[in-house]
Amino acid sequence: MLSQTGNSEPQDPAQTPPALSELLDEYAAFATRVRSLAQDTVKTQRLYLERFLAALEAASPSELFASLTAATLQRFIFAYAEDHGSGSRRWMQFTLRSFLRFCYCQGYLSGDLSPAIPAFSSPRLSSGPKGTDDDTVRLLIESIDTHSPLGLRDLAIILMLSTYGVRGIQVRLLCLHDIDWVNSRIYFRPVKNGKPITQHLTP
Question: Which fold has domain 13-116?
Fold first, then answer.
Protein backbone atom coordinates (compact mmCIF):
# COMPACT_ATOMS: atom_id res chain seq x y z
CA MET A 1 0.00 0.00 0.00
CA LEU A 2 1.07 3.58 -0.63
CA SER A 3 1.54 5.80 2.38
CA GLN A 4 -0.58 8.92 2.89
CA THR A 5 2.35 11.02 1.65
CA GLY A 6 2.48 9.06 -1.58
CA ASN A 7 5.71 7.24 -0.76
CA SER A 8 6.04 3.57 -1.64
CA GLU A 9 8.44 2.08 0.90
CA PRO A 10 10.20 -1.23 0.21
CA GLN A 11 8.54 -4.10 2.04
CA ASP A 12 11.86 -5.48 3.21
CA PRO A 13 14.87 -3.17 2.74
CA ALA A 14 17.24 -6.07 3.53
CA GLN A 15 16.25 -7.73 0.26
CA THR A 16 17.05 -4.65 -1.80
CA PRO A 17 20.19 -4.99 -4.00
CA PRO A 18 23.09 -3.05 -2.48
CA ALA A 19 24.00 -1.17 -5.67
CA LEU A 20 22.04 0.50 -8.46
CA SER A 21 24.06 -1.42 -11.05
CA GLU A 22 22.96 -4.69 -9.47
CA LEU A 23 19.36 -3.53 -9.52
CA LEU A 24 19.64 -2.79 -13.24
CA ASP A 25 21.26 -6.18 -13.84
CA GLU A 26 18.41 -7.85 -12.00
CA TYR A 27 15.84 -5.93 -14.05
CA ALA A 28 17.63 -6.86 -17.29
CA ALA A 29 17.50 -10.55 -16.36
CA PHE A 30 13.83 -10.23 -15.42
CA ALA A 31 12.95 -8.43 -18.67
CA THR A 32 14.73 -11.08 -20.73
CA ARG A 33 13.53 -14.16 -18.84
CA VAL A 34 10.00 -13.22 -17.79
CA ARG A 35 8.93 -10.56 -20.28
CA SER A 36 10.86 -12.08 -23.21
CA LEU A 37 12.15 -8.70 -24.34
CA ALA A 38 14.83 -8.68 -27.02
CA GLN A 39 18.40 -7.99 -25.96
CA ASP A 40 18.49 -4.74 -27.96
CA THR A 41 15.32 -3.56 -26.20
CA VAL A 42 16.73 -4.41 -22.77
CA LYS A 43 19.98 -2.63 -23.63
CA THR A 44 18.08 0.50 -24.71
CA GLN A 45 15.93 0.37 -21.58
CA ARG A 46 19.04 0.30 -19.42
CA LEU A 47 20.24 3.54 -21.01
CA TYR A 48 16.91 5.21 -20.22
CA LEU A 49 16.95 3.90 -16.66
CA GLU A 50 20.44 5.30 -16.19
CA ARG A 51 19.12 8.72 -17.29
CA PHE A 52 16.26 8.36 -14.82
CA LEU A 53 18.53 7.39 -11.93
CA ALA A 54 20.94 10.23 -12.71
CA ALA A 55 18.09 12.74 -12.64
CA LEU A 56 16.85 11.49 -9.25
CA GLU A 57 20.41 11.47 -7.86
CA ALA A 58 19.77 8.38 -5.73
CA ALA A 59 22.94 6.81 -4.32
CA SER A 60 21.46 3.34 -3.72
CA PRO A 61 18.33 1.30 -4.48
CA SER A 62 17.05 1.81 -0.92
CA GLU A 63 17.41 5.57 -1.30
CA LEU A 64 15.75 5.40 -4.71
CA PHE A 65 12.72 3.45 -3.48
CA ALA A 66 12.30 5.70 -0.46
CA SER A 67 12.13 8.76 -2.74
CA LEU A 68 9.71 7.36 -5.31
CA THR A 69 6.24 8.88 -5.27
CA ALA A 70 3.64 9.49 -7.95
CA ALA A 71 4.47 13.20 -7.78
CA THR A 72 8.21 12.56 -8.14
CA LEU A 73 7.68 10.39 -11.19
CA GLN A 74 5.32 12.84 -12.83
CA ARG A 75 7.65 15.78 -12.24
CA PHE A 76 10.46 13.83 -13.83
CA ILE A 77 8.50 12.67 -16.88
CA PHE A 78 7.09 16.15 -17.60
CA ALA A 79 10.54 17.71 -17.27
CA TYR A 80 11.96 15.00 -19.54
CA ALA A 81 9.24 15.62 -22.13
CA GLU A 82 10.19 19.29 -22.40
CA ASP A 83 13.71 18.46 -23.58
CA HIS A 84 13.15 15.33 -25.68
CA GLY A 85 11.22 14.31 -28.77
CA SER A 86 8.22 12.02 -28.98
CA GLY A 87 10.29 8.89 -29.67
CA SER A 88 12.49 9.42 -26.63
CA ARG A 89 9.43 10.21 -24.49
CA ARG A 90 7.75 6.96 -25.50
CA TRP A 91 10.88 4.96 -24.70
CA MET A 92 11.14 6.57 -21.27
CA GLN A 93 7.46 5.98 -20.51
CA PHE A 94 7.61 2.35 -21.63
CA THR A 95 10.83 1.74 -19.69
CA LEU A 96 9.67 3.31 -16.44
CA ARG A 97 6.32 1.51 -16.46
CA SER A 98 8.07 -1.81 -17.02
CA PHE A 99 10.73 -1.08 -14.39
CA LEU A 100 8.20 0.03 -11.76
CA ARG A 101 6.07 -3.09 -12.30
CA PHE A 102 9.22 -5.17 -11.86
CA CYS A 103 10.05 -3.40 -8.59
CA TYR A 104 6.54 -4.01 -7.32
CA CYS A 105 6.58 -7.70 -8.33
CA GLN A 106 9.93 -8.16 -6.58
CA GLY A 107 8.60 -6.59 -3.39
CA TYR A 108 10.91 -3.57 -3.53
CA LEU A 109 7.86 -1.30 -3.69
CA SER A 110 4.72 -1.90 -1.64
CA GLY A 111 2.54 -0.33 -4.33
CA ASP A 112 2.53 -0.42 -8.13
CA LEU A 113 3.58 3.08 -9.26
CA SER A 114 3.55 2.29 -12.99
CA PRO A 115 0.11 3.93 -13.50
CA ALA A 116 1.64 7.20 -12.26
CA ILE A 117 3.59 7.52 -15.52
CA PRO A 118 1.44 9.80 -17.70
CA ALA A 119 0.76 9.23 -21.38
CA PHE A 120 1.32 11.93 -23.99
CA SER A 121 -1.05 12.00 -26.92
CA SER A 122 0.28 12.97 -30.30
CA PRO A 123 -2.04 13.95 -33.16
CA ARG A 124 -2.07 11.37 -35.91
CA LEU A 125 0.45 12.14 -38.65
CA SER A 126 1.44 15.33 -36.80
CA SER A 127 5.09 14.70 -37.59
CA GLY A 128 4.51 13.59 -41.18
CA PRO A 129 5.84 15.60 -44.11
CA LYS A 130 3.48 18.23 -45.49
CA GLY A 131 4.61 17.67 -49.06
CA THR A 132 7.45 16.63 -51.34
CA ASP A 133 9.88 19.29 -52.50
CA ASP A 134 10.47 19.94 -56.21
CA ASP A 135 14.05 18.62 -56.18
CA THR A 136 12.92 15.26 -54.78
CA VAL A 137 10.19 14.97 -57.43
CA ARG A 138 12.69 15.88 -60.16
CA LEU A 139 15.18 13.26 -58.99
CA LEU A 140 12.42 10.66 -58.85
CA ILE A 141 11.27 11.46 -62.38
CA GLU A 142 14.83 11.37 -63.69
CA SER A 143 15.31 7.91 -62.18
CA ILE A 144 12.45 6.41 -64.22
CA ASP A 145 13.29 4.43 -67.35
CA THR A 146 10.93 5.94 -69.92
CA HIS A 147 11.99 3.50 -72.67
CA SER A 148 9.66 0.77 -71.40
CA PRO A 149 5.87 0.62 -71.01
CA LEU A 150 6.23 0.12 -67.23
CA GLY A 151 8.50 3.14 -67.01
CA LEU A 152 6.03 5.30 -68.95
CA ARG A 153 3.25 4.11 -66.63
CA ASP A 154 5.31 5.00 -63.55
CA LEU A 155 6.10 8.42 -65.03
CA ALA A 156 2.41 9.10 -65.64
CA ILE A 157 1.55 8.10 -62.07
CA ILE A 158 4.25 10.29 -60.52
CA LEU A 159 3.30 13.25 -62.70
CA MET A 160 -0.37 12.96 -61.74
CA LEU A 161 0.42 12.70 -58.04
CA SER A 162 2.80 15.66 -58.08
CA THR A 163 0.74 17.83 -60.44
CA TYR A 164 -2.79 17.37 -59.12
CA GLY A 165 -2.09 16.51 -55.48
CA VAL A 166 -4.60 13.64 -55.48
CA ARG A 167 -4.48 10.45 -53.44
CA GLY A 168 -2.84 7.28 -54.70
CA ILE A 169 -6.18 5.47 -54.68
CA GLN A 170 -7.64 8.14 -56.97
CA VAL A 171 -4.90 7.44 -59.50
CA ARG A 172 -5.50 3.69 -59.21
CA LEU A 173 -9.21 4.20 -59.88
CA LEU A 174 -8.56 6.35 -62.95
CA CYS A 175 -9.94 5.00 -66.25
CA LEU A 176 -9.47 6.21 -69.82
CA HIS A 177 -13.00 7.63 -69.94
CA ASP A 178 -12.09 9.86 -66.95
CA ILE A 179 -9.89 11.90 -69.28
CA ASP A 180 -11.64 14.38 -71.57
CA TRP A 181 -9.05 14.81 -74.29
CA VAL A 182 -11.17 17.22 -76.35
CA ASN A 183 -11.76 19.70 -73.51
CA SER A 184 -8.43 19.02 -71.75
CA ARG A 185 -10.03 17.88 -68.50
CA ILE A 186 -9.21 15.06 -66.12
CA TYR A 187 -11.68 13.68 -63.61
CA PHE A 188 -10.74 12.00 -60.31
CA ARG A 189 -13.36 10.04 -58.40
CA PRO A 190 -14.27 10.93 -54.80
CA VAL A 191 -12.76 8.86 -51.96
CA LYS A 192 -13.15 8.90 -48.17
CA ASN A 193 -16.43 10.84 -48.37
CA GLY A 194 -14.67 13.56 -50.35
CA LYS A 195 -15.77 15.35 -53.49
CA PRO A 196 -14.90 14.51 -57.09
CA ILE A 197 -12.01 16.49 -58.51
CA THR A 198 -11.96 17.94 -62.01
CA GLN A 199 -8.74 19.56 -63.22
CA HIS A 200 -7.36 21.01 -66.43
CA LEU A 201 -5.31 18.41 -68.27
CA THR A 202 -1.73 19.67 -68.32
CA PRO A 203 0.50 19.20 -71.37
Answer: DNA polymerase; domain 1 (1.10.150)
